[in-house]
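To whoever picks this up:

The parser on our side crashed when reading a file containing two proteins. I've narrowed it down to the boundary between the first structure block and the second sequence. Both blocks are reproduced below exactly, byte for byte. First block:
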Amino acid sequence: MVDFAAPLAALAAHRWFKLINGASFQDVAQIYNLTLAYALAGADCIDVAADPAVIYAANEALAVAASLGATRPLLMVSINDGTDPHFRKATFDPSRCPPGCDRPCERICPAEAIRFNEQVQGVVRDRCYGCGRCLPLCPLGLITTDEQPAVFEDITSLIRAGTIQALEIHTQPQRYSAFSELWQQVRPWVRYVQVLAISCPQGEGIIDYLHWINRQIQPLECALIWQADGRPMSGDIGDGTTRATIQLGQAILGANLPGFVQLAGGTNGHTVAKLRAMGLLAPGGIAGVAYGSYARKRLAPFHAIADQPWQTVPDVLAAAVAEAATLVSPLKSVPSLSVPYG
């Protein structure tokens, strides 16, 4: 039986680090290596899609990381109660692309999920995670999206078996009926997990909505996280994207909901410094930070060097873990009271 006291203690100490692989990201080779590197760097939670193949790959990577001395993080799976940008993939017919197009969609894609070569023409579906940056750039408007909702029934056996230790429900303000319907499916399974997270972006009536959700889900026997999804899937775009998630996190803190508040959506290398400067990484403040596109981008060069399991290429693994640690360590470190942070 795995002891998850360490990641739960990190949550309580406001030092919680979560890697978001992506609710619709299904490149199992990259997910394996990202999970391995960030687990060895000290991540407390690894968030993946509700895809058994993805869950299996992440779980295998966590087992390898544990064998190499890592404290095992929680494995979290994301599900949704309706249309959500995290649960979609871009699609288009490349045969309709004009020969002279300079392919801005290919250049903008942060996951390198759009290709035009001998092997692939169009979207590499496993790599697309639904960020939507390609949608407005097609000069002919050929790119659309396919919804890819999570199927909760696909993962219940893995919850019961203990392979999944945390669940995250993605919702949006005013989705009362949709959340209630999903919660009826989820409620019997919550007793098997260590953490339940509720992820919500900014929107009209969000605080009233989160209070309503809290009334629906209580009592809980596990830890509860409110994820402030400030600017979804944007952390790799630029420094300023972190402002929206910090502002939303502050609003949720002000609601005095039970549980912990964690940031996501627009988090990057400036998030922790801003939180510390604002005094928000303290009891009663932000309990942790989740990193998605920004964390994955940091390790992209290592995928280009080696696409096999990184433990088979020790130099690549060591370098990838060192790079991952530059993102994990600032959140884990406790600055001296006599020396200003930064």
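<<boundary where parser fails>>
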Amino acid sequence: MPEPKVSVLIPTYNYARFLPEAIESVLVQRGVEFEILISDDASTDGSDRLIRRYASEDKRIRNLQRTRNLGMVANWNACLSEARGEYIKFVFGDDCLATPDALARWCEMLDEHPEASLAASARYVINGRSELREVWDEWRKPGEFAGHDVIARCLSLDKNLIGEPTAVMFRRIQAARGFDENLRQIVDLEMWFHLLHHGTMVYDRTPLCAFRVHVGQQTALNRATAIGAAESLRLTARHLPRLSESRLGWGRRKRILFRTLHYSRKRSPRTPEILAAEARIASQLSRPARAACWALHRISRPFQNLARWGVRTFSPALATPSVEWCPPRHARFSSAAPFVYDRAHGH
């Protein structure tokens, strides 16, 4: 069997109600050769039976059923280690692709930009009933962005501006390290930083996937523990020093450190882990640098708030009139997941 261009990885745990939508959204893809690896992490909701039925109908599907629960990140890595494609495309068990040419478009971005380490896109945000809630388009313009600048912007705003794994495609050869299994909340962003130290990011404003927000997802569970706050501090400490002074500049580096520390102290619980991480960040800021950053922050903050209000109020609609969210129509194998792509209609 020839090597596929893309390995589509679907790690899942107890998402039988959403899995048909995820799988079907990949099966309708056209214009590129792909394999689908579904790694069920010992689910207890009948996911294994559902996956076996799909795999029996389509030889492109490889069923990587786990007999014991590996945990979220270990399951991602186990799935990644089995991939054979040149490019890696995660589609989580509760997400889905948005158009039948989504894989081809991500591939085109990487093919046309050999220096790019990853390709990302805008994404639809849907709820548990596959209803559209909003569109996330963080960059607001298509094109290629320098890796060090993407990292700096994410660190400065303490936000994942790149997207979740379902919104990103990357090169398998550059991801041999795997995801950091010591992290739980910002695992994906840390991997994107690792890749971007070696290349650029290509971005498409077209929403090529749908990210589902629901109460059972890991992000919602982690939010209650504030684990993301401690990991954000670790992310800054790990990756900011890797950005060269000539590319980033002394002033921008100090502003990133200040913002990281300032907002952590405002928003994070006062746990020993967070206090220790804040102390490490603070040690890199002299008193004069901290005072200068504080003054600049106070002066610029009202203008930044005004700019954000202007973008929300007056920004033109997403420039993709031909691409609209079309809720899936039916599931072939699971009455518990009634929303799945109808191949006859190409949605």
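After patching the parser it read the second block fine. Residues 316-322, 335-347 have pLDDT under 50 and may be disordered. The two ends are 28 Å apart (CA to CA).
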